[in-house]
Amino acid sequence: MKRFLLAPSLLASAALCFAAANGSWLRKVPAAESQRVNPFAGQPEAVAAGRSLFLENCARCHGAEAQGKGSRPPLRSDRIAHATDGDLAWMLKNGEVYKGMPRWAGLPEPERWQIVAYLRSLNNAPEVQP
Amino acid sequence: MSARLFVTRWLFAAGALALILLAAPRTVRAQQDPPYFVTYSSVLEEPGNLEIENQEIAAAPKNANAFFAPTVEFEYGVTAWWTTEAYLQGQSTQHDSTVFTGFRFENRFRPLPRDYWINPVLYVEYEDVNGADKSFLEITGNDSISNLAVPNSRLRKEVERSVEGKLILSSNAKGWDFSENIIGEKDVNENSPWEFGYAVAASRPLSLTAGSGPCIFCRQNLAAGAELFGGLGTRYHFGLQQTQHYAGPTIALNMPSDLSLKFSPEFGLDDNAAGVLWRFGASYEIQQFRDWFRRAR
């Protein structure tokens, strides 16, 4: 009986992980949110602060170098590079709670923008993976 | 030993614990949890994280012995929409005894996938506590501080097993958190009516942006707010009368390396309440605790 249940459970988990990592969330971002501009864009201090926030809050799941960990996707990727700052800010605020990504609406909005500034700096680097 | 000295000693011990924790390594710290003791916000534990919190309360009511009541909480993020928590409680009463008062097991669920202007969370709890419980984790029904003027040996004989539900509503705006809880509780081991209570709170970090340098006592690590909570009577005697109400400021220091401290004096607002409840909490979060049980990847 346990084996009977195990296979569908594994399949469902794999499907969820794939869905979480396939970028389908980008299609859910409202246009107005997607077009929002990062007030800290291009500010080195914001990138440094965003890095500190990232290491404290995000690195345990996504890796210290944002390389991803297990089923948790890398944040140095072509997908992130092509997402707008507004897309990333929307994802941080809302999360994908049914796919494992918590919402971070409890963090002040400026701090979320600082994290976005850091993610942008990572994905402007030449070693971004496809 | 006077009641004031009794409370002061326990608060001194809590302060000493805080100083030990301050010796931790220093990096930037940002935490979503608002600095509340009674009120729940819509923030759930991040999936895979385990938070261990020791919450203390001390008071010297006018017509009862001073007491100190610690509660240990284990909060685990099962998923991004489900947090589960277990509590172990005890208390020590001046001129009386130190007793274990019971346990609670709770679950919080987020029913909506997105962030809205007001975010609901559903809360379900089972508790098995005896009458000596002085944790004040919520107030329901027609409760009075004078009920605690009875010796622990008698209070312990009254065991209450109950289920409790809360509707947690929470909003975030311009760095502020506004949270409201509506509480309903029903004894399952005796024939008593539904009891109700409430809690509301608001808070804000002292700075909305993070700095890039390491610090402990900088504004970005501090959050301040206020809480108001109390009972709403029972199904048959609903209202603000014949129950306790408290209000007070609250402050939290979200320290480096997943440590948090919070403190609040809560002032009784009516004759049924204690003069002041002194609360202190220290918590430590183990990030991705579940990875301890997974193979290295």
Characterization of this structure:
The complex is a heterodimer of chains A (130) and B (297). Chain A has 130 residues and is mainly alpha-helical. Chain A has one domain (2-124): Orthogonal Bundle (Cytochrome Bc1 Complex, Chain D, domain 2). Helix content of chain A is 56%, strand content 0%. Chain A contains 7 helices and no strands. Chain A starts with a helix and ends in a 6-residue tail after the last helix. In chain B, a hairpin with a 3-residue loop joins strand 10 and strand 11. In chain B, 8% of the residues lie in helices and 48% in strands. The radius of gyration of chain B is 19 Å and the shape is globular. Chain B has a 12-stranded antiparallel barrel. Chain B has 297 residues and is mainly β. The chains are: A mainly alpha (130), B mainly beta (297).
Total beta strands of chain A: 0
* Count of all domains of chain B: 1
Give the total of domains of chain A. Answer: 1
CATH class of chain A: Mainly Alpha
Helix content of chain A: 55-70%
Strand order in the largest sheet of chain B: 1-2-3-4-5-6-7-8-9-10-11-12
Shape of chain A: globular
Oligomerization = heterodimer
Number of separate helices of chain B: 2
* Radius of gyration from the alpha-carbon trace of chain A, in angstroms: 16 Å
Q: Give the amount of beta strand of chain A, in percent.
A: under 5%
Draw up the topology in text.
The complex is a heterodimer of chains A (130) and B (297).
Chain A: H1 2-21, H2 31-34, H3 44-57, H4 59-62, H5 78-82, H6 85-94, H7 109-124
Helix pairs in contact in A: 3-7, 6-7
Chain B: H1 3-21, E1 50-59, E2 67-79, E3 82-93, E4 98-109, E5 119-130, H2 152-155, E6 159-173, E7 176-187, E8 195-205, E9 222-234, E10 245-255, E11 259-268, E12 276-286
Antiparallel strand pairs in B: 1-2, 1-12, 2-3, 3-4, 4-5, 5-6, 6-7, 7-8, 8-9, 9-10, 10-11, 11-12
